[in-house]
Every structure is written in structure tokens, then in C-alpha cells.
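We examine the record.
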Amino acid sequence: MIDDVDTDAHFVLCSHSHGGWKPIQRADGVWFIHPGAMTRLTLPEAHRTPGVYLLDLIADPVAVSWRSLGAVGSEIFDHATAEEEAGWEQRIGTFLTRMAEGVDSGMDLTWRIDQLAEETGLEPEVLDEIRNRLLQREAASCG
């Protein structure tokens, strides 16, 4: 993919994906650098230590070095919160599956959500998240 980037730049700084990757220097000398996110948001990211790449532009050749900016994930990551969120996702998935099984065309979804919430004893926070997701889907399908 980086071979397809046409640029006169010496450095291309990338972002968005949390994991990041080690700097890559193409044969033409262009550097592609992506340190990853400064935060860890999910349990799969617990192993990753956030940091930055420092560029020494005076050195010849240019030097790129890594600097850690945080503790090892296992020392600071709240596994209880992550496990709770995973449980939410499972309960939401189960709820939406059951809801889809009992929905007829033209049915009032608010009524069906309330009915299932009562049957399953779903926590109010999880129920609010389900309603928010359904509203987002509805808004996306409208345009």
C-alpha cells in the first residue's frame, strides 16, 4: 500500500489505527511513520505501550527512535471495566437477536424494546445503549 503513495514528502505521518507500526523507509527514501494511539481503549490493546517516534533531522542519515510514554498496559488497564463492557456487548447482541425474532413489519419497536427489557431484566444503561444504536441505524438508513 505504501508503494502506491505518490509524494515528494520526506516523511508521511499516519494515524487513526490504535496499534500503529514500526517506521518503514521506502527504497526512494520516504519514511512512513505511525506510532499508534496515545490511549488504549479496549482489552486487546492492553499489551501495547503508547509512545512517540522522535525524528532527528540533523543526523545523517535521519534517525528515527521510539520513546515510550506510558506504563505497560497490564499495570494500568482496568480489566474489570473491559470485562463489563464485553458483557454489555454480549447482552446487547442477545437482546437485538431476540428483538429481531419477535418483530413484525410495522411493529412499534419502542414497545418491543420495553417488553424484552422487562423479560430479561436488562440494566438501564445497557437498554439506553440499545436505544441509541437503533436510533443511529434509523438515522443512517434515512439518509
Observations:
- Helices lie at 73-76, 79-101, 109-120, 124-141.
